Please model this.
Amino acid sequence: MKIKKISTRLSLQISLLLLSFSLVLWFSNSLLLKPLYNYSVKKEMVEGIESLSSIDFLSDATEWVDELSVSDPSHAYDITVEYGNEILYSSSMTVGVKVPDVNYVPITQEPFDGEKDIRFKKPFFPVDQVKSWTTLKDNIDFGTMYNDHDRMNLFVARTTLDNGVRIYLTQGIEPILNSVKQANLLLFSVTGGFMIVALIVAFMISKKFTKPVRQINAHVNQLANLSFDGVLEVNTGDELEDLSDDIKSLAFKLKNALVTLEAQNLQLQRDIESQKKFISNASHELRTPLTLIKGYADELMQGYIKNPEDLMTYIGYIGEESNKMKRLLNEILELSRIESGRMPIRLQNYNLKETIESIMEKYSGYFEEHELDINTELVEGQAEFDLLRFEQIFANYISNAVKYGDASKKIQIHSIEKEDRYTIEVMNTGQPISEEVMQFIWDGFYKADEARTFNDYSFGLGLSIIKGIQQIMNQGFGCENREGWVVFWFDVKKMNDN
Model:
């Protein structure tokens, strides 16, 4: 079964690493300690024989015994020295006495006094029990033997000096094996305790190490559920902290993207709904003149109209409705060009006051026809705009003011200088536009009764076109109610005097 928690896997991996290291130590101790110890013992015994070879064992015993005592007191091997049929010295009780009698006269000394013949009664070194003799160095042999007295195996090193003296060194093998066993037992005990402590420490380290990882994982899960309320704080000063900062940055961008996407989705739904209404209303607006044209044309074709005057009246109705259809289609096409970004804009520098006065003079007949009471407050200044679009917006505002103004027919036209622009206002007295209606009037073919209000406002495509023009030129526009007045306004860019 796959372990999913990082802390658990990390603890197990650390523990396995420590266990592997302990097993390597144990195998090394079991397999290498004995050969190394054997090599060390052989080296020590060879060095011991070389050291003993410099002693003159055929001289006075009092001299070389003292020399033996100071030669290497730390060695672990036993020494046996033979000459001829005699044991001159033995530190092993199994083959001879520890120190020879000082009155002992070696057999080589003459004359020999039989009363002083206190020859050792111990047997000579049991060379015949030694097995596997091998030569380690010049004139130094090495072998093993089993000691019945001590019931243990021995290492044996020997050499024969030029004067005939034989030196034997022996050292037990069992102490080596016991040392290996004790070392393994100690290693197992220490390893067991160490593993327990290591598991605890590894668990604590893994918990501490994986804490920021768990925090990051929990925060990412929140983000996956689109929850941005959590706070991620990782202060490790390493790559994990960098990762947490990246995640926080990603979460911030994701949150903003979702907010933007929700707003765009809402706007898209509104646009879709508005488009549906636009198509429906456009179809209705086109259907009305088409119905009238068809009706008049049918009556004419069927010969119901006999009077020449009535005939001309019907033809006039057909022409009027055709013009409405033409104007409506032109507006639809123009709005389509605006929305597709294909409407040409020709910006030039104009005197704002002179431009407004020129347009008003052009429409003076229209003003007189509707008996309008117009007052103006215009400022001098240079502005940048497309003259054709400027007149289109201004004329549309005037037309709405005439259409929805009250019986007083008062209209005021203002131009207001601001920091970087001029604002042109067209104001008319009349019924105010409700806030509920005001947010929809810039949509094409909007009718106030669709919002279930009691206003009589109904708009075609004029305000939609104004909205598109101003958005293309990145200028403001709007509508507001003031005490007794309805104000439509739009901005043009102000030109510097220099």
